[in-house]
Design brief:
This protein is of the alpha/beta class and 250 residues long. Helices cover 28% and strands 18% of the residues. It has one domain: TIM Barrel. The protein is globular and about 45 Å long.
């Protein structure tokens, strides 16, 4: 991984260089989803990072099951990111730093996923301040900004990777990337898409590559009736592993 000489500057997230891989936005608790967490440690899984979200953050105290799941992934060299909820910039700076300390102390996370990260120019300076502090706390660990849409371009200077799409398949198949993204390599972008059927998986992969995303999470799980589509594995898990595994040509 290239060395970052200035806190808050961007660089490729660990393991993302070179080929399309997976970013996991957050499974259910390891006691409720043991298979899912075990599968992330599978040697063939092209995992760029996985988010640990204990209770919309680090929770109220250390959770041994979450620590065990995180340690298993980290032992395989798979980065684990603590989930920090920014609430579109509404979270106080002190709360975020406190949550970051808990994630590091209790779970040994490698870096952080900033959920619901703001997108507007007016909030860039405060987000940069947060990113600089998190890098210092985590010994320059990876940062992924969970915007869910394309932000003001300046945010790309603060994070290793931007989630520039998070939503359903009908919207994704007609989405477009703004021109400024073409100046950056694919490892700087991630797309999270739910409701992708098996028959549309190849099309979804083509869209990701065409729009310049280096990390994806596609699932056939639904967000209907308030369900969390990210809590479990897609029904075509083995198939997507074979599509993206080592030796697969892009």
């Amino acid at each position: 991984m290239p060395h970052v000489t200035k806190p808050g500057c961007a660089r490729p997230a660990s393991g993302t260089e070179g080929r399309l891989g997976l970013g996991v936005p957050g499974y259910a608790h390891p006691l409720l989803a043991p298979l899912e967490w075990a599968e992330l440690a599978r040697p063939a899984a092209p995992l760029h990072w996985a988010v640990l979200d204990v209770a919309r953050g680090p929770g109220g105290g250390p959770d041994p099951a979450c620590r065990e799941a995180a340690d298993r992934l980290r032992a395989r060299g798979r980065p684990v990111l603590g989930n920090l909820e920014l609430r579109d910039g509404a979270r106080p700076f002190g709360e975020l730093v406190s949550d970051a300390h808990r994630f590091l102390d209790w779970y040994g996370v490698d870096g952080f996923y900033l959920a619901h990260c703001p997108c507007a120019p007016a909030q860039l300076d405060e987000t940069r301040r947060t990113a600089t502090t998190l890098r210092a706390l985590s010994d320059d660990g990876p940062l992924v900004f969970g915007h869910g849409r394309h932000p003001y371009p300046g945010y790309a200077d603060c994070a290793d990777q931007l989630v520039t799409f998070a939503g359903g398949w009908p919207d994704y198949r007609w989405s477009q990337a703004p021109e400024w993204t073409a100046a950056l390599p694919p490892e700087r972008f991630c797309h999270l898409v739910h409701g992708v059927s098996r028959t549309h998986l190849d099309e979804a992969l083509r869209i990701a590559r065409w729009q310049g995303a280096g990390t994806v999470w596609f699932t056939d799980r639904s967000a209907a009736r308030g369900a969390d589509p990210w809590e479990g594995l897609p029904g075509y898990w083995d198939e997507i592993i074979s599509r993206l595994g080592p030796g697969v040509s892009e």
